[in-house]
Input
Amino acid sequence: MIVETALLQVQHLQYVAEQLVNLELETTKHEILHDVNFSIQAQDFVGLVGPNGSGKTTLSKLLTRILEPTAGKILINGTDYQAVTPQWQLHQYVSMVFQNVDAQFIGPNFVEDMALYLGNFNWSPAKIQTRIQEISDQLGLEELIERPFNSLSGGQKQLLAIAEALALQPQLLILDEPTAQLDPENTQLVLNLLQKLQTQYQITIILVTHKLAELALTNRVLILNHGTITQTCATDKLLTDMNLLQQNQLPVPDTVTIAQHFQKLTGKQLMLTNSNLETFIQTFKEQLC
Ligand SMILES: Nc1ncnc2c1ncn2[C@@H]1O[C@H](COP(=O)(O)OP(=O)(O)OP(=O)(O)O)[C@@H](O)[C@H]1O
Output
């Protein structure tokens, strides 16, 4: 029997932040994450949810080695992060897009920013040019790549930040609340791109989000609460389980409230999600008429 190694394995991860409290260089310690365990298979689309301050951003930074864990291990394709040297080689496996993409760009537009980024990896100008062309063709970004960042909408900048994060063809892409500051139109632009990455390019994605409606794109969710993973489950289970949502201080979607009322009225259990809501309403209308 062949046992496949998970793409990402997180084992007993702990992160303790140390803060300077005075000029005598005294510090206090604050445990942000403890005993975090989970694994992700290649091509999973995973949602990472949890109440404010539960440690989602800290975990994302550990997964991209922006922070080093106090204890525990992270393995990518069975290789310990610590064994990936030099450290920047990890960009070839895992990449992250931050909520505030403006802080991510150094150049004035995508083409120049990619040249600076890939130049750090000693890519030749010709190779950089080919990769820019390739990625903008694949993701349909031709019209944006030479425009100054300051002339683009928040959603367009997110698209370019995602494209840049894919420059080195990582296997795992982590997005920290990519739509938090976007209006509905720009949110849709970003969600469409994520769906395309998943279906056409089979990229493994971790989507950190507060918006439970966005979880419809994912197949699995990790719930982080009080600094540890309290549950991993199929997305449909979370989105239809009022108790699980409430136990983890997550907002209850309207679909769950409707399903609960339906059960009270009819005694029948209903698994209602955004994807089958329209069919449910249609059936209901037909029965009423
Ligand atoms: N460097 C640090 N020193 C001390 N405490 C920190 C540090 N970084 C984060 N924290 C605290 O750790 C906790 C987790 O923060 P984190 O930003 O990871 O949570 P989050 O789940 O991403 O929150 P949000 O949903 O609000 O973005 C918070 O209480 C935060 O104040």
Observations:
- The mean pLDDT is 89.
- Residues 17, 19, 30, 32, 50, 52-58 surround adenosine-5'-triphosphate (CB under 6 Å).
- The longest strand covers residues 27-40.
